[in-house]
């Protein structure tokens, strides 16, 4: 039955229904996903701010002193703080067992090598390393470290 053959009242009802359907579709397909993405971004930003504040509150070690060792319980905190100081992006940090940590990070190759040398001076040993280096000397590393 064509739209023109309907009564004025039925055409008005169908028009209002189409308008309502258009508004619901606009809300569902356009507005709602954008709002959810904004909320996710705000939550991630707050998490990053909290992480930065936590890193700032961590106690400083006597970095740079040769022969200084740490205990195994302090290893995750040391890795988080010193990787940030070395301009490395810590992507993952998992405690495997007492004194052993599995981590993923990225940054410049020079920064990573200097950081690993600094850790070695503090008694941290690299158990395994998987490095992916691009032509611009940017590295993605997966490391297993432990206290000697």
TrEMBL record:
Its main location: membrane. It is a single-pass membrane protein. Keywords: Cell inner membrane, Cell membrane, Membrane, Protein transport, Transmembrane, Transmembrane helix, Transport. InterPro entries: T2SS_GspM (IPR007690), T2SS_M_periplasmic_sf (IPR023229). It holds the Pfam family T2SSM. It comes from the Bacteria. Belongs to the GSP M family. This is Type II secretion system protein GspM. It comes from Pseudomonas kulmbachensis.
């Amino acid at each position: 039955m064509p739209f023109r053959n309907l009564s004025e009242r039925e055409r008005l009802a169908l028009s209002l229904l189409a308008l309502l359907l258009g508004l619901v579709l606009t809300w569902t397909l356009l507005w709602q996903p954008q709002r959810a993405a904004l909320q996710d971004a705000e939550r991630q930003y707050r998490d990053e701010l909290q992480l930065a504040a936590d890193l700032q509150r961590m106690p400083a070690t006597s970095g740079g002193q040769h022969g200084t060792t740490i205990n195994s319980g302090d290893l995750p905190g040391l890795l988080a703080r010193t990787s940030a100081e070395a301009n490395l992006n810590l992507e993952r940090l998992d405690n495997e067992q007492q004194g052993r940590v599995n981590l993923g990070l990225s940054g410049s190759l020079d920064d990573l090598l200097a950081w690993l040398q600094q850790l070695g001076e503090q008694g941290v040993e690299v158990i395994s390393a998987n490095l992916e280096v691009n032509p611009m000397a940017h590295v993605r590393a997966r490391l297993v470290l432990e206290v000697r």
